[in-house]
Prior knowledge:
Layout: E1 2-10, E2 13-22, E3 25-34, H1 36-42, E4 45-49, E5 51-56, E6 58-59, E7 62-63, H2 70-79, E8 83-89, H3 95-110, E9 118-125, H4 146-153, E10 158-163, H5 170-179, E11 183-186, H6 193-201, E12 206-207, H7 223-231, E13 234-237, H8 246-255, E14 258-261, E15 274-278, E16 281-286, E17 289-291, H9 304-313, H10 318-332, E18 349-353, E19 358-363, E20 366-367
GO molecular function: metal ion binding; N-acetylglucosamine-6-phosphate deacetylase activity
Pfam families: Amidohydro_1 (PF01979)
Protein name: N-acetylglucosamine-6-phosphate deacetylase
Amino acid sequence: MQRIEGHVLTPQGFVHGALEHEGGRVLRIEGTPVGEAQARAEARAFVLPGFVDTHVHGGGGADTMEAGDAIAQITRMHVRHGTTALLATTMTAPLVEIETAMRALGPACAQRAPQSARVLGVHLEGPYISPDRLGAQPDFAKPASIDEVLALHALAPIRLITLAPELDGNLELIAPLRAAGFRIQIGHSGGSYEDGVAALERGAGGFTHLFNAMSGMHHRLPGMVGAALAHAQYAEIIPDLLHVHPGAIKAALRAVPCLFCVTDSTAAAGMPDGDYRLGRHIVTKCLGGVRLADGTLAGSTLTLDQALYNLVGLGLSLTEASMRTSTHAADYLGVTDRGRLAAGTYADIAVLDRDLQLIRVFAEGEEIDLAHA
């Protein structure tokens, strides 16, 4: 059994005391309930749920589409920044390349490697997206096929699919894909507000990197952004303060009850400036961002410990920032034993100092070596 002392964030609020865990699970949390203001004034250590990231393309110099041992490098890098569970995210590509990536991701989803984040499954970001809203995706977009999805799912478990509902046949496939157990997000879409509402009515659950690579909001043409702000319960957002202006983040926080953070991280995350792979593209990391040769933003270098820090800097409480980097994403995926700390949940834990800098991480009870973070 291991004991971690500090101000522990539980679903009911902060407790000044200790968390005990054994066998990869939380045994108990004991102590005195305290308000957040008192916790912030007193704490030497905040004990928070490990972060959950539903949108990870890479990190530590590796890209999910490389296959091989790329996912091992990616999960080792992200766990050192407090992300204890993630979805490995693919890129739009010819089917044979997606299949190769999925074959490598299957074993990683089946078992967590030592000193690594848990891979909860795959986020299939494309190829079922709009050719007019590729963002940094390679130009291999096409309408969705349920048979194709099922064949890919047989290689590695797909938890989340991004699609553009305005593509021929995509809207009609949302309900059967949901019935088959897949969660659907609207993204990389030039569709109208009405397309977005129709997709939500058929079972789409959220929006992929809100504001980015989708039709924007105008007061007479509200677009996909308008559909999200008016109707979404869940949506991803990239809070690196580069992809989305702080004012737009604040608007989304007011409008989308369970807005949650993702990194959309690339191989460049955790690495020095230079050139890296993103699917078929070569991207360049410089000045804190990642871009294609034409200047298009191409994923990020964000990690979720920085995302939490940024949210608090925008005025969110630590409790709310934690929910938006852990709990809401877990809830969205239907995962009830991660993204929160309570007796019986996985011992996925991020310990931060009073300046919100990460000092310890536990993934399913295993303490992570942060020396190379």
